[in-house]
Every structure is written in C-alpha cells, then in structure tokens.
Amino acid sequence: MPRRRSTVAIKYIIDREDAQGEQGFIAEIETLSSCKHANIVSLLGFCHEHPHMILIYEFVSNGSLDDYLGTKGKMTNLTWVQ
After folding, report:
1. Any idea where the Protein kinase domain is (predicted)?
2. What is the gyration radius of the CA atoms in the chain, in angstroms?
3. Does residue 3 sit within a domain?
4. The total number of structural domains that make up the chain
5. N or C end of the chain: which has fewer CB within 10 A?
6. Has residue 81 been placed in a domain?
7. Residue 24: which domain range?
8. From first to last of its 82 residues, what are the pLDDT tens digits of the chain?
9. Do the domain assignments include residue 80?
10. CATH number, residue 39
11. Taking the chain, what is the end-to-end CA distance rounded to the nearest angstrom?
C-alpha cells in the first residue's frame, strides 16, 4: 500500500531560562489534544527532547486566523454568524 504524503506545519519553541516556553509548549499540547473541531487545526505530533520542543500540525493553506481578523492597523469586526 503506498504511503500517503501530507504537508505539515512545524512550530519550534525556543527553550527559555524562565520555563515559560516549556509551560506554553505543554499547555498547547494539552489544549489541542482535547479539542476536536473542524475549524481547529489538528496537532499531529510533537518532540520534547530537551532542549528541543517541536509541534507538528496539519497544514492549512488558507492562512491563519489573524489574517482574517486583521492586524492593529487594520481591524475587522465580525458578527457571531461570521
């Protein structure tokens, strides 16, 4: 059976002396592991071999949420329906 190839997004988290990077890393794994929704990017895997902290997500080609909400200079107001 042929292997299925997928494009993934990889996030590398820099290890910090104050442990905030590791706390955020663990929190992101816990949150994304418990959320299953069509509009939330899936966490496919991770690597936690000190000092490396890597998250592997499904790749979404439509951009990120902040692309749709805008930036500080260009805010977009959305209704609940949108």
Report:
1. 1-82
2. 16
3. no
4. 1
5. N
6. no
7. 8-75
8. 566 777 899 999 887 777 788 888 999 999 988 888 877 888 999 999 888 899 999 888 877 766 666 666 666 676 788 7
9. no
10. 3.30.200.20
11. 42
